[in-house]
C-alpha cells in the first residue's frame, strides 16, 4: 500500500505548505490505476476541488466530487479513481499530537466519559457550512502564493476551524473522534484495529498508528484481545472473506485484495486450512446446497 502522507510530503509534484505539525497540500491524482490502496499515519481532511473519487472502508464506500468534504482517519483505505475529469483536492493532514495539544489548551471541550466510536467508520462525511467553505478557499489561495504565508496566521485559522467544529452539533461525530484521541489508549488501539484489519499492513504500521513501539503494541494487544495480533488479524480477514465468498459475486482475486491478504495464493491456502476447501470450491458447494434446499 502507498503511504499517502509520506508520498505527498516528500514529493515536488504538489504545491504544499508545512506549518508546525500540519501539512496543507494541493493534490492532483497522478496515478493511472483505477483502484489503489492508500494508508496514512496522519488523519486528513479532503476538500474536493474537481473530479470524482471513491474512498472504500471495510464495509462502506464514499464517493466524492466537486465541493464535497470528507475526513479520513489515520489508517488505510482502498480508493477508486474516475477519469471523466481530473481529480484535484486540498488535503490537510493533522497528526494526533496536534489535536491533543489543541484540546489541552481548550480543556473545556474535553469530556470525562469514554467516547463510544463503535458506530463510526474510518471515513466521515463532513456537512458543508459557510466557515468550512471560506476556510477551504483561503487555504487554496495560500497554496497558490509564491511566498509562504505567515505561519502563525495559518495555525490560528486552523484552530479557529477546530473550535467551530466543536461548537457545531452537525460535526459531533468528528469532535467525538478528536476527544477519543485523548482518552483510553487501548480502546483507541481497538478502533484502529477494527477499522484497518482488512488491509495488507505490517505489524509495525499498526504499532505506528497506535503511537507505540512494536513490543509495546504486542503487549497491549495481547492484554486487550487475549491473543496475538497475527492470529487475530488472520481470523478477522477470514471471517470477512467467508462473507464475501458466500454473499457476493466478487472474484477470488478481488476478495483477496479487499480482505488484505498478501496475495491470492496466500488467501487460498489459509482459507482451505480453515474450511478444507478452496474459496471457489466452497462457493460452488454452498451454491449447490442452496439450490437443492439444504
Q: What is the compact description of this entry?
A:
The chain is an alpha+beta fold. It has 12 helices and 11 strands.
Describe the protein's topology:
Elements: E1 2-3, H1 4-10, E2 15-19, E3 22-28, E4 35-40, E5 43-50, E6 52-56, E7 61-65, E8 69-72, E9 75-81, E10 88-94, H2 96-105, E11 123-125, H3 130-143, H4 151-167, H5 172-180, H6 185-196, H7 203-209, H8 214-225, H9 229-247, H10 252-258, H11 264-275, H12 279-291
Parallel strand pairs: 1-4
Antiparallel strand pairs: 2-3, 3-10, 4-9, 5-8, 5-10, 6-7, 6-9, 8-11
Helix pairs in contact: 7-8
Question: What this model shows, in words?
Answer:
Keywords: DNA-binding, Transcription, Transcription regulation. It holds the Pfam family ExsA_N. It comes from Panacibacter ginsenosidivorans. Residues 187-285 form the HTH araC/xylS-type domain. The two termini are 41 Å apart. Strand 2 and strand 3 form a beta hairpin. The strands form 2 sheets. The chain has a 6-stranded antiparallel β-sheet with strand order 2-3-10-5-8-11, sandwiched between helices. The protein is of the alpha+beta class and 294 residues long. The longest helix has 19 residues, at 229-247. It folds into 2 domains: 2-180, Jelly Rolls (Sandwich); 230-291, Arc Repressor Mutant, subunit A (Orthogonal Bundle). It has helices at 4-10, 96-105, 130-143, 151-167, 172-180, 185-196, 203-209, 214-225, 229-247, 252-258, 264-275, 279-291; strands at 2-3, 15-19, 22-28, 35-40, 43-50, 52-56, 61-65, 69-72, 75-81, 88-94, 123-125. The model has no long low-confidence stretch (mean pLDDT 92). Helix 7 packs across helix 8 (214-225).
Amino acid at each position: 500500500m502507498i503511504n499517502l502522507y509520506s508520498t505527498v510530503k516528500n514529493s515536488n509534484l504538489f504545491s504544499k505548505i508545512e506549518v508546525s505539525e500540519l501539512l496543507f497540500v494541493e493534490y492532483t491524482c497522478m496515478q493511472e490505476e483505477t483502484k489503489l490502496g492508500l494508508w496514512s499515519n496522519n488523519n486528513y481532511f479532503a476538500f474536493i476541488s474537481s473530479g470524482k473519487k471513491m474512498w472504500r472502508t471495510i464495509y462502506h464506500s464514499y464517493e466524492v466530487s466537486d465541493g464535497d468534504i470528507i475526513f479520513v482517519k489515520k489508517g488505510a483505505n482502498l480508493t477508486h479513481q474516475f477519469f471523466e475529469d481530473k481529480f484535484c483536492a486540498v488535503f490537510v493532514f493533522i497528526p494526533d499530537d496536534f489535536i491533543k495539544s489543541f484540546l489541552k489548551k481548550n480543556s473545556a471541550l474535553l469530556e470525562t466519559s469514554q467516547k463510544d466510536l463503535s458506530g463510526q467508520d474510518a471515513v466521515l462525511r463532513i456537512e458543508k457550512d459557510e466557515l468550512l467553505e471560506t476556510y477551504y478557499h483561503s487555504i487554496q489561495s495560500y497554496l497558490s502564493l509564491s511566498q509562504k504565508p505567515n505561519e502563525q496566521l495559518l495555525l490560528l485559522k486552523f484552530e479557529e476551524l477546530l473550535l467551530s467544529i466543536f461548537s457545531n452539533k452537525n460535526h459531533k461525530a468528528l469532535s467525538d473522534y478528536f476527544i477519543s484521541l485523548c482518552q483510553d489508549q487501548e480502546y483507541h488501539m481497538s478502533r484502529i484495529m477494527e477499522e484497518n484489519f482488512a488491509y495488507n499492513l505490517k505489524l509495525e504500521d499498526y504499532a505506528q498508528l497506535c503511537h507505540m513501539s512494536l513490543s509495546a503494541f504486542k503487549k497491549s494487544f495481547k492484554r486487550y484481545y487475549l491473543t496475538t495480533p497475527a492470529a487475530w488479524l488472520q481470523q478477522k480477514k477470514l471471517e470477512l472473506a467467508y462473507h464475501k465468498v458466500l454473499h457476493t459475486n466478487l472474484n477470488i482475486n478481488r476478495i483477496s485484495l479487499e480482505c488484505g491478504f498478501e496475495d491470492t495464493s496466500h488467501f487460498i491456502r489459509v482459507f482451505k486450512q480453515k474450511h478444507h476447501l478452496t474459496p471457489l470450491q466452497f462457493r460452488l458447494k454452498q451454491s449447490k446446497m442452496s439450490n437443492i434446499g439444504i
